[in-house]
Design goal:
- The chain is 79% helix and 0% strand.
- It has 15 helices and no strands.
- Helix 5 packs across helix 8 and helix 9 packs antiparallel against helix 10.
- The radius of gyration is 24 Å and the shape is globular.
Length: 313
């Protein structure tokens, strides 16, 4: 297991380096001069050249990349060109809002989707199963930004049940402001996870060890909870780990629509203002989040499935 952890850590570090390097090159290719944006329309070529030198934009790209990674090793992501604050401080201020949004969305989606998927598998081809399937496909097909707009219009504007914008102040006020964005991010995953659990459960219920458990006279509920469900949720764990990129992209739209602070809103503002240090800082953090989530998903699979643990020896 320790050898597996070391291999995963080295692979994760390599993925972060490659992904950040590629994204660094892509950001450099974005049209627009950050110095001209920062100085405004009255800037002169001399002032722009001076600011280019201060920001290190005149150096070749390999030198810029090496300097950037050297700063990361020291915990330095650069300085915001507008606020003159460390990028790490700005990103860490916004990160908890996005993490709270993603975890809340995943939590309620999993709690609803897994029972739905199990019930659909146990009532295969019934009216309830078909109804759940139609609703699942419908929620998966609706984009996050469309769901956010309609949820805002219905629950905030028409009914007035939930706040429309902001993140709130204080614990319970923050929870109240988090309900609607978390619902929007997680509603599509309810359908997705329920379909995965249903398909996995149907496959597992036909395996030999399940038939043997039934032949011993064990209660069906005990068989489902003890032997079938732990294996049926394994694909869900993997999908959630890999789906972190989709969750982050959904968070971008939701944070913009609901005017919430977070990494998504920070990325949009930084790209719009050509604030390269903040863009790169958010890129590094989101890349690390994605790599960490996939690694954790693999470790959870190894903990739940003895077959995976056996393959690691």
């Amino acid at each position: 297991m320790w050898l597996y952890l070391v291999r995963r850590a080295l692979l994760a570090a390599a993925i972060v380096v490659i992904a950040v390097s590629l994204l660094f090159l892509m950001i450099q290719a974005v049209p627009g001069d950050p110095a001209a944006v920062l100085l405004g329309p009255r800037s002169t070529p001399e002032l722009r050249a001076q600011l280019h030198a201060q920001m290190g934009l005149d150096d070749p790209l390999p030198i810029q990349i090496v300097r950037f990674f050297g700063g990361l090793l020291r915990g330095d992501m650069g300085t915001d060109v507008f606020l003159h604050r460390p990028v790490s401080d700005i990103v860490l201020e916004q990160l908890p809002y996005t993490i709270a949004l993603i975890l809340s969305a995943i939590a309620w989606a999993v709690l609803v989707a897994i029972p739905l998927g199990c019930y659909s598998a146990m009532r295969r081809n019934s009216v309830v199963d078909k109804t759940i399937g139609v609703l699942a496909v419908g929620t998966i097909a609706i984009p996050s930004f469309v769901m956010a707009i309609y949820a805002l219009l219905i629950f905030s504007v028409a009914l007035g049940w939930l706040p429309a914008i902001g993140a709130g102040s204080g614990f319970w006020d923050s929870v109240h402001h988090l309900i609607l964005p978390a619902f929007v991010v997680g509603v599509g995953w309810v359908g997705y996870i329920s379909r995965i659990v249903r398909a996995s459960m149907l496959e597992i219920l036909g395996e030999t060890h399940i038939r043997m458990a039934r032949s011993f006279g064990l209660p069906e509920r005990h068989i489902i909870a003890r032997y079938a469900l732990p294996l049926a949720v394994l694909p869900t764990v993997t999908v959630l780990g890999v789906g972190m990129a989709h969750l982050l992209s959904a968070a971008v739209f939701v944070e913009v629509v609901f005017a919430r602070p977070g990494i998504g809103a920070l990325i949009v503002k930084a790209v719009d203002s050509r604030n390269y240090p903040v863009v790169m800082g958010t890129v590094v953090v989101t890349t690390v989040l994605f790599v960490v989530s996939t690694t954790l998903a693999d470790l959870v699979n190894a903990a739940l499935d003895p077959r995976v643990r056996g393959s690691l020896r």
